[in-house]
Request: fold
Amino acid sequence: SSGINAEYGGSHPGEILKLQPLLLEMLSRVQELMSTWPDHPALTQIEVVVKRITSFPLSEPIIKFLQGLEILLAKCQLWESIASRSVSLGCLVTRLTDSIIHWRSIELRSWPILLEACQRRYAEKSSDNFLKISNLLLEANSSTDLTSSIISFIETATYGDYHCRLEYLRLCGEKLKRHMDPGVYCAVQNIHLYYTLLSTHIKKALDTDTGSIRKQLVEYTKIAKWKDVNFFSVKLATETSHQKLAKLIKKFEECLKKDVSVVLDTFPRVSLSEQPCQPANNERCKLVNDLRCQIIDSVETL
Reply:
């Protein structure tokens, strides 16, 4: 569940502040009991955990507090198993369990956005491609030398990083424009245009592949509940939910790793290398514009 916990990593100061009165009450009650049993290991452990949780900055991820609460609940259950009613932490333990269940419900509601976060992480891993495409553009001597390299760069992408690679191509082309041969720059523009037009088909294919995963996730968040106030039931429900979520995320990641070539191979190839488009050369501008119309027509007619 470490990957899940990483996603559930935002801070929630408002929620954490609501917890402070409970922790202070519990600390006070435990210290009161320790005046009678000063060296009791169960009470000592509860005191240590409460002090540890209250020392966390409010900016810490809520999952850190939640894990601390679950450890605290386990320690309290140990005391409750041996304590008489007169020295029980009863209502405090109930409130603590309610807080855990409430925060687990917050986690549950955040699940639908986990797939988007997963996709962002996958795309960020392709950042090395920025340097790769920069080197390709700087080292190219002509549009002919460059075209096959860039096309290979785009067509070896996966569903997860296709749009990133296109954006890297656009950014590098703009930043390195003054260092490039005009013909090379024009080839970059044409390649970017063509594959951008195909990007909607890549997205559609990914949405189709991941549709069932998204549906399962939404359906599971509707039925997964933590209603039982028994500590062990809450723990079991949490572990079961995390196992289910981890399986869905793994399936989603496998979809992101699929090669886009499966989709791209269904489209016709057009000549993407062209003479530079200079404002003073109307004939060349017309050639480039005609080429772009060819590209648009070839995509829209499919």
User: Anything to note?
Assistant: The radius of gyration is 29 Å. The CA atoms of residues 190 and 272 lie 6 Å apart.
